[in-house]
Design goal:
The chain is an alpha+beta fold and 456 residues long. 34% of the residues lie in helices and 22% in strands. The strands form six sheets. Strands 1, 2, 6, 7, 8, 9, 20 and 21 form an eight-stranded mixed β-sheet that branches. The structure holds adenosine-5'-diphosphate.
């Protein structure tokens, strides 16, 4: 009798456990988590290899931060460079990447990125993405022949993905944790529109992007950027992949490095020339109308100082001459500037004591600078402008450690069986500085490496 009772109890426990995680289990060959550039590329690659692939994307649509990529891709020795007669060699590309990252990037991974870039661009061209070399001054940039870069980049890869019957994209489906059996990653627990369930897979690719939309996590890895704003990110970049990877003993590298933009507003960032150029530049003031920082600090240090203010933001105040520069013009339009013909009127619009702001501007115009700024401008030509700026993270440069196979490395230095990663979630390609445009190149190059190895 006792045995029967125990059996009934055990069955009940098993049933309840099955219900709590949803009793369905879906099986596939390759599970890709995250539907930005890297996840889409990895999915297409694994599907091309003939495997059954499920891509889960937690948002209602794929695209991630990749879809808001503004400019283009960086690549070297491509057919476009040959056609344009404008060289940008692999050596140039490697050097630029290493130097920008203060030589802290992993040269092995950077070499892979650089050496695969021409093929990556050819692949994108074959999918229908029309690019050109931006100019002989910026030969590293390949930009769209027309239109917005990120949406076209995602568009052509998504079109390709939709061709495969063996590739299923599940949106509004969030991976909660990785499943591990005998030290091997074998799938993930998913929260979908109909509840939780498991997807069991032979391999998993993590492509969940960065943590731009998770200020608490940013602060955890670099206290200087505590209270970062989230002007420059889509909603999904909350570091889920980092948390899931840590739970299976993955190693993280370079996590303290973030690409902070001091002058960011409404999804875009602006050149610091608005507040740090000789003669014509403006200043930053706090919400009491006082200067509080040397505006010519390096961007990341400047961002950190602005974040220390109670509002974690500041006013950029400048005159008509700055408003006429290309950066100034865009800043005024996007930032919904306050504009007035006198500093006193401007102060009223900013809800700041006019006498305080007038004194701040007068002192600055007379070269009084308690912040050791050596490059001083003046704010003298009406109309005057004030725009609220909110320092934000533009790119998460650290992340999960991977090897040349895009396989995740654990804290003991060993590859984790069944787990691959690509895109912004990986570390090692940047160190302390990002060559703009290497990120969507990473999506293609490491997305392909991850996808093809996961398909083996
Ligand atoms: P990358 O350039 O590396 O592809 P993106 O930011 O473009 O980075 O894409 C990452 C994608 O991963 C985003 O669309 C994001 O919503 C998605 N994502 C993040 N966390 C999860 C999760 N836990 N489950 C499913 N998708 C996720």
């Amino acid at each position: 009798m006792k045995i029967i009772k125990s059996l009934i109890a055990l069955t009940l426990v098993i049933t309840l456990a099955a219900c709590s995680t949803g009793s369905k289990v879906t099986k596939t060959d390759v599970l890709v988590i995250g539907g930005g550039g890297a996840g889409l590329v990895a999915s297409v690659t694994a599907a091309e290899a003939g495997k059954n692939v499920i891509l889960v994307e937690k948002m209602a649509a794929v695209g991630g931060n990749t879809i808001i990529s503004a400019t283009g891709i960086t690549a070297s020795d491509t057919y476009l460079h040959t056609e344009a007669g404008i060289p940008f060699t692999k050596e140039d590309h490697f050097k630029r990447t290493m130097e920008t990252g203060k030589n802290l990037a992993n040269p092995e991974l950077v070499n892979i990125l650089v050496n695969s870039s021409a093929d990556a661009v050819q692949w994108l061209a074959d999918l229908g993405l029309k690019l050109k070399v931006r100019s002989d001054k910026e030969p590293f940039w390949l930009v769209p022949v027309e239109g917005h870069y990120g949406s076209q980049f995602v568009g052509v890869i998504l079109n390709k993905a939709n061709e495969f019957k063996n590739l299923e994209i599940r949106t509004s489906s969030k991976a909660l944790e990785l499943l591990v059996e005998d030290g091997k990653v074998v799938g993930a627990l998913i929260e979908g529109p109909e509840g939780q369930y498991e997807i069991k897979a032979k391999s998993v690719v993590l492509a969940t992007g960065g943590l731009n939309n998770n200020p608490e996590m940013i602060a955890e890895y670099n206290a200087k950027y505590a209270n970062a704003n989230t002007e420059m990110t889509t909603a999904g970049a909350t570091g889920d992949g980092i948390i899931m990877a840590l739970a299976v003993n993955a190693n993280l590298i370079d996590m303290e490095y973030f690409q902070m933009r001091p002058l960011s507003i409404n999804g875009d960032w602006y050149n610091e020339s608005i507040v740090n150029t000789e003669d014509v530049s403006g200043i930053l003031v706090n919400f009491q109308g006082q200067r509080f920082v040397n505006e010519t600090l390096a961007p990341k240090a400047l961002a950190s100082e602005i974040l220390k203010t109670p509002e974690h933001s500041a006013y950029a105040v400048f005159d008509q001459r700055v408003a006429e520069t290309p950066a100034g013009k865009k800043f005024v339009e996007k930032g919904k500037a306050f504009t007035a013909n006198t500093i006193a009127e401007l102060a009223v619009l900013m809800s700041i004591d006019a006498a305080v702001l007038e004194k701040t501007i007068n002192d600055y115009n007379e070269g009084v600078d308690p912040f050791e700024r050596t490059v001083l401008g003046q704010v003298i030509q009406a109309p005057y402008y004030a725009v609220i700026t909110k320092p934000s993270n533009h790119y998460t440069m650290g992340g999960i450690q991977v090897d040349a196979n895009a396989q995740v490395i654990d804290k003991q230095g060993n590859p984790i069986e069944g787990l691959y990663a690509a895109g912004e979630v990986i570390g090692g390609l940047y160190g302390d500085g990002r060559v703009a445009g290497n990120n969507t190149l990473d999506d293609v190059v490491f997305g392909k490496i991850a996808g093809s190895n996961a398909a083996k």
